Amino acid sequence: MALEFARTLDALPERNFSDQLLFLTALQAAGDATLADGLHERQRQALQNPEETAAMVTWMNAHGLAHDAISWSEAIPLNLRANILVAVALSDSYMAMRDWTGILRFVQGGSWGQIDFLRNALAARAQRESGNESAAQAQWREALKKINSAPKQALLLADTVERWGWDAERTDLLWLAAKDPERGDDALKTLYARFAQDGATQDLYRVCLHRQEFHPADRNIQNNVAQLSLLLDMNADRARKVARDLYLGDPKNAAYASTYAFALHSSGDSKNAVKTMSGLTDAQLRQPQIAAYYGIILATAGDAERALQFLDLGASAKLLPEEKALLEKARRQIAQN
Prior knowledge:
Order of helices and strands: HHHHHHHHHHHHHHHHHHHHHH
Radius of gyration: 29 Å
Number of strands: 0
Distance between the termini: 77 Å
Number of helices: 22
Shape: elongated
């Protein structure tokens, strides 16, 4: 049924090349004997322009025919093979086959214009997979050098190396992308998620400081900066002032109240810290992240029974290493009294 419908669409005079590739997909899915002839016909047609050539190679890569795409590339005229779209699609073919020697041969010399950094990155991957780490590092440095003047391109390469499992290189690229006025905040959000997952508090603090440059009036980001400052004991006096201002502006906000209460607690005023937290609803206090701080404050204030209750709730939150240490300290404090 699907194949017949595809044949009907393929017979329409207004069909485009994407429609014809969908027809090939239907032929392959059906195991139709005419696939080879249909593929050859579309390959011949694809040589009319670089966009269709690249689309043809991409289709072959996606349908388990990367090896055939490399073989077919010998029939592609040099002027088309030099096109950026075609070059990128063919590099994916070599990657799919893990043909590192082929990639090195394919990317050597020439230039890929605005995405020439990708040519160096592919060479770096091929050299690393071939055991040539020094050559890989040299190619990677070239890629970064070319991206540094155009940080927007870093996001493209970051997506690529993520698929390779190059976590450290991806992080470096995201920091480069953070310099871009238009897309920098997207990169910072990605970094924030990564560092939050890893429990990298100082890196989170650095990200929040940069995000504040993009959003100077964002109160939630200001609160995050204040909270992390207090955890790390960095610029603590300013953090206490920011926490106080945010709380006074919105005392029913659980995150702001928690940060201000922690600011009071860290300066030795646990009594007012408890008072600040008591202005929240029971449901707010029982949110794991909020409960963790409430339990810490209650332990110092001497309310051991309630402190243990909230420390237990807080233990289920996704906590940073410094927060876990504060919870353990609170439990030891209770046990010793």
